[in-house]
Amino acid sequence: EANLDRYKFADDIKVEKRPDSATVGIHFSSPSYQTDWEYERDSNSYKRSLAGAAHVDRGSGDQITTKNIAVIEVNRSYNPNTNQGKGEWSMTTEGSGKATLFQNGTVVEGTWKKPGVGEMLRLSDSNGRELTFVKGQTWFEVVPPDVSVTHEERTATPPTSKQ
């Protein structure tokens, strides 16, 4: 039995309120796992790249895009005695921790919370208010505390006139 509810959603913000461009970088462990997202103002979405190349959907061949990128920071532990002696990492996905939501070319810092099995993961801002997603695809990136996440937002500076 599960206690699942809906997330809150909103329409895209107006184009004139969006930054010209933005990037999100997630530096997992090596260049092979380097994940980058490039924001596109006109579509108000992010395109995903992996290891320096477009990350494409195997079925459609299209580059993966999303409206929201939710990065949740979770603890992890390594057990060398699992996976037929090869070992594997376990991620803690119940409890709470740091969350970052990228949408509309901007970033909102907050927390995630998932009380237990059968409960829904929720994102809240720094004041404890539930975060609203932009209507469309949402991609969750689950990272341990030692993974670097970067964000850069760029707005064009109007040219100055010389006299």
Tell me what the structure shows.
The protein has 163 residues and is mainly beta. Helix content is 0%, strand content 48%. It contains no helices and 15 strands. The strands form 4 sheets. Strands 2, 3, 4, 5, 6 and 15 form a 6-stranded antiparallel sheet that branches. Strands 12-11-10-7-14 form a 5-stranded mixed sheet, with no helix packed on it. The chain has a two-stranded parallel sheet with strand order 1-13. The protein starts with 7 loop residues before the first strand and ends in a 9-residue tail after the last strand. The model has no long low-confidence stretch (mean pLDDT 92).
**What sequence of helices (H) and strands (E) makes up the elements?**
EEEEEEEEEEEEEEE
**Outline:** globular
For the largest beta-sheet, the strand count, sense and barrel status come to: 6 strands, antiparallel
Helix percent reads under 10%
Low-confidence segments? none
**Beta-strand percentage?**
over 45%
Total strand segments: 15
- Report how far the terminal alpha carbons are from each other: 72 Å
Present the secondary structure layout.
Elements: E1 8-10, E2 21-27, E3 34-40, E4 45-50, E5 53-54, E6 65-66, E7 68-73, E8 76-79, E9 88-91, E10 95-103, E11 106-114, E12 122-125, E13 132-134, E14 138-143, E15 148-154
Parallel strand pairs: 1-13, 7-14
Antiparallel strand pairs: 2-3, 2-15, 3-4, 4-5, 4-6, 7-10, 8-9, 10-11, 11-12
